[in-house]
Write a structure and sequence with these properties.
The chain has 634 residues and is an all-alpha fold. It has a domain of 199 residues: Orthogonal Bundle (MetI-like fold), CATH 1.10.3720. It contains 24 helices and 4 strands. A hairpin with a 4-residue loop joins strand 3 and strand 4. Helix 5 packs across helix 6, helix 14 packs across helix 24 and helix 19 packs across helix 21.
Length: 634
């Protein structure tokens, strides 16, 4: 290799290394700024007192900063989410992987992706308008804004994560295992229950844990439907009690808190606790999935002894049974709990006496019911939004500025502001993400540094959106003095979608056969020439798909921009990157929660936002399907 060419290759390699290390730097910056702003709260209040205090009254005299009700609310709503989402998610994953015909499977996977693409603020809007009213009427309560409403809503939001990860784990079980079981005379259900699910258990566990992380880190939906009362339910099993989560407190209070006050620092302390909780959950999930992949590829010879696995399964079943009885007692009282519990116990005790074919029909009926329930949730949400939102849409609504606090006029500045935010975020994140993916897949060798970079990307991917918002507020708005501005929002959103672009781009690059690289090297091309002229063109459909998915996610996010970029109403478009902007998600949130009489325009705003996001996801799905049919690499 010529000296000039070798220098250029080394320089390019260093640039790509910087893009990859950027994710690690951002994680450390987030931790640093969270700790920097949280330290004063821990110093003045005391760490133990802050965590175990039972009163959160920041504006009383004297102020009380006890985070226990908020931590408890976060854990309770997560528990309720898991109880609802896990059986539905795993049942749907089994159906999609093992029972669904190819066309139905493709339809269901697309349905799950659409469900994943619905912005959290739209879920919150639906929950506040429809779900809470249903709970109030059905259970004859004074209000429907309760722990139960939050858990149901978050369960729907967590379903795509649980279904996708669990379905991948179930699909990865070797075909030989299933064929051997069927050859021994087992029914399809016996094969699924005794062979497939136990073999995929680590991936299913990772799906559940990631679903928990999704629930713990959610902000907008829980703010809108849980009642936001900083109390511990009495009794603790009262699912109809209003509660408040960590994310809800940050979202509600941050905008009206004086910078530098003890209240301000206490909110950052809450964010630090939340970040650590989610970090631990995602670390466990990623380790489980990594070990699962190592066992599949033969890199790991360690296995869980059957005796320990059996005990773990028994313990898990007992824990789920106790949680189920606890929830029944909260909803229906002791009498119905005893009757239902006895029925299930009797069915479990006599399960071996039921003929295998009847047992299979019963099990398959439950799997069908799981999938139908998921489709029902999606159908109800889309029908409610579109049936009431489409009549609002007209040229004036799409081209005028809002009037009368958003009750009249249109949402044109919010549409344009959303596009500005999204396009700016992608312009920042795309080169960084693709550069990092190229380094990890094409340049980096297995080393400690590569492991650290991957850990940084995984942790950045699991960081709650509200934490990105606080980091953007502390670092960009205040420290760098950008103010609440378009550029601050663009950078914050870019950091949030960066790990998605890295991971999807790396998967696309990894799918390119090594023979393509070898042929390029054989013709005398350098590594960079091979990457740009041979590998990237083949991987580009997958990279574009990941980028479009990132655009859809950034378009629907509220928490990262509510402290950094967004204002509720603005008659004129921004003329500088340092001007604030309107945005569809934030406009919908304020219109729903703070403007009486704005329901009609809120439905119109939700419809436009939903159509925008679904269109982006549909384009991504089309690109992927198109290249798969052609045998292309995605």
């Amino acid at each position: 290799m010529r000296p000039g060419r070798e220098k250029r290759e080394r320089f390019i390699g260093k640039i790509l290394l910087v893009t990859a290390v950027f994710s690690v730097i951002i994680v450390f910056l987030i931790i640093f700024f969270l700790f920097l702003d949280a330290y004063k709260a821990f110093q003045d209040i005391g760490l133990i007192q802050f965590i175990t205090g039972r009163e959160w009254r920041p504006v009383s005299e004297p102020a009380r900063f006890g985070a226990l009700p908020l931590i408890t609310g976060t854990l309770l709503i997560t528990l309720g989410t898991v109880v609802i989402a896990v059986p539905l998610g795993i049942g749907s994953a089994i159906f999609i992987s093992e029972l669904a015909p190819p066309r139905i499977k493709a339809f269901l996977k697309s349905t799950v992706e659409v469900l994943a693409g619905i912005p959290s603020v739209v879920f919150g809007f639906f929950g506040l308008i429809v779900l809470t009213d249903w709970i109030r009427v059905t259970f004859d309560r004074a209000t429907g804004e309760t722990w139960l409403a939050g858990s149901i809503l978050l369960a729907i939001m967590a379903l795509p994560t649980i279904i996708t990860v669990a379905e991948d784990a179930i699909s990865s079980v070797p075909r030989e295992y299933k064929e051997a079981s069927l050859a021994l005379g087992a029914t399809k259900w016996q094969t699924i229950k005794e062979v497939v699910v136990p073999s995929a258990m680590s991936g299913i566990a990772a799906a559940v844990i990631l679903g928990m992380g999704r629930a713990i880190g959610e902000t907008m939906a829980v703010m809108m439907v849980t009642g936001n009362a900083a109390v511990i339910p009495e009794p603790i099993t009262d699912v109809f009690s209003p509660i408040r989560t960590i994310t809800g407190s940050i979202g509600i209070e941050m905008g009206e808190t004086p910078t530098g006050s003890l209240h301000y620092h206490s909110l950052f302390a809450l964010a630090l606790i939340l970040f650590i909780m989610v970090l631990m959950i995602n670390t466990v999930a990623n380790r489980i999935m990594r070990k699962m992949r190592d066992r599949q590829t033969g890199k790991s010879r360690k296995s869980i002894p059957e005796k320990i696995r059996g005990r773990a399964g028994t313990t898990l079943r007992m824990a789920l049974a106790l949680i189920f009885l606890w929830v029944l007692n909260s909803w229906f009282g002791m009498t119905w709990t005893v009757l239902i519990g006895a029925s299930f116990a009797g069915a479990y005790a006599f399960r071996r006496r039921v003929p295998a074919k009847i047992s299979q029909k019963m099990a398959f009926s439950l799997l069908y019911l799981s999938v139908i329930t998921v489709i029902f949730f999606l159908g109800v949400i889309l029908y409610d939004i579109f049936s009431k939102g489409i009549p609002v849409l007209n040229p004036d609504f799409l081209t005028q500025s809002p009037r009368n606090m958003g009750r009249e006029g249109g949402i044109y500045p919010a549409i344009v502001g959303t596009l500005y935010l999204v396009l700016g975020a992608i312009a920042i994140a795309f080169p960084l993400g693709v550069g990092a993916a190229i380094y990890l897949n094409e340049y980096a060798k297995e080393s400690r540094l590569k492991s650290i970079i991957r850990a940084g990307i995984e942790n950045l991917n699991g960081t709650p959106s509200i934490v990105f918002g606080l980091f953007g507020y502390s670092f960009l708005v205040i420290y760098l003095n950008f103010g609440v501005s378009l550029i601050a929002g663009q950078i914050t959103l870019a950091l949030m979608v960066l790990p998605t672009i890295i991971r999807t781009s790396e998967e696309a690059l990894r799918s390119v056969p090594d023979s393509v690289r070898e042929a390029s090297f054989a013709l005398g091309a350098s590594r960079w020439q091979t990457t740009t002229c041979a590998v990237l063109p083949s991987a580009m459909p997958g990279i574009i798909t990941g980028t479009i998915l990132s655009i859809g996610r950034s378009a629907g996010e509220t928490a990262p921009i509510m402290f950094t970029a967004a204002v509720f109403t603005q008659r004129y478009l921004p003329t500088s990157v340092f001007d604030p902007v309107m945005a569809l998600p934030y406009h919908l949130f304020v219109l729903t929660t703070s403007v009486p009489g704005g329901k009609s325009n809120a439905y119109g705003t939700a419809t436009v936002l939903l159509l925008l996001v679904i269109a982006m996801y549909s384009v991504a799905i089309f690109i992927r399907s198109h290249y798969r049919k052609k045998g292309g690499i995605v």
